[in-house]
Design brief:
With 355 residues, this protein is of the alpha/beta class. It folds into 2 domains: 14-53 and 107-241 and 277-315, Rossmann fold (3-Layer(aba) Sandwich); 64-106 and 317-352, Sandwich (Immunoglobulin-like), CATH 2.60.40. It has helices at 19-24, 39-52, 125-136, 164-170, 182-194, 219-229, 247-257, 282-293, 303-316; strands at residues 14-16, 33-35, 67-75, 88-92, 95-97, 99-104, 109-116, 144-150, 154-161, 201-208, 232-237, 297-299, 318-323, 334-340, 344-347, 351-352. It is globular and about 65 Å long. Mean pLDDT is 82; it is low at 1-15, 17-55 and 270-275.
Amino acid sequence: MVIEARVLSVKLMYQSRSAHALENRAAQKPCRARLGYAAAFVLLLGLSAALMGQAGRRPATSNEGGVLVGIVARRTDNSPAQITAKQLSVYDNGVEQTIRNFTPDPSPARIVLLVDNSLTIRADVEKLERAAREFAYEIFEGDKLLIVGYDEEAEIVSDWTDDARSIESSLKLFRKKGQPHLFDAASAVIEQALRAMPAQKRVIVVISDGLDRGSKTSFERILAELQKQDITVYAVQAQDRTRGATSFERILAELQKQDITVYAVQAQDRTRGAIRRDVPKPRQVIDKLVEGTGGVIFSIDEPGIAAKSICDELKKNRYVLSYLPSSAPFGEARSLLVLGDEGITVRAKTAQQPN
């Protein structure tokens, strides 16, 4: 059944191409269900979140008026000895804060695999399938995966589940086409899949080289929203299809290499001098998303290591830290720095966004 819904000002299509939907339409021309910010979809997400929440909850903390931060902490010698608040320091806008609570986070993980299946990504479909498949067999009891493929639109490949066989069968729906609208796809995932379940560990694993071509959503907006929602981004990074150069730089280099002279008969500038400056290079996108949210980068050539490392970390090394900020400016983003004593490594988001 196709659900037609009213789409809000951000016109992101959030489509379903689940195996179940394809089976129901085996005798028909494939037709993907398109979902926007629909009341029906929000209701379904709410029911799903309520059911999934039975598997575990974040530890309750008295945090009225304070800041709650999910962090990764481990001992460099891999000792199982408990890490305590006394071994950590928190700086909000450069000012050291008093930690109110610090406790392991036993809540289940909700992991979105956001997979670039656009035409030009330098990874074949089999490599994309393999990178996603590894996670199906590494998640722990209570964890669930949502797999979303994107080009100009974000489409559900496999809905929330922990059924490895179901996930594996759905991966055959990957296909390469179109341009990568990474930022629009991330926005759709945040708004329509993760915002409704704040009591879980929420993670996006970006399987991409970081290239975005044509998104209406800006990179800065995506990073700020991820930090505001305390969503961690990990990356399984494909080879940079731009080789680190912009399209202009590649064209100029080729012209110079071939000793071709360019003349111009110039028309009036239609942009009136405006240039879009809010799209960093692919490598910078991956670096900033991961560093800004406390994640890690892995290579797409080692998907097994990536999946095991991420799932183990979420299960064994995630903590919840809370503090009441002192002298925090109202309505402004603030830098956030969490440090551990010698022998303890800590990762967390790098900014606290205003509520």
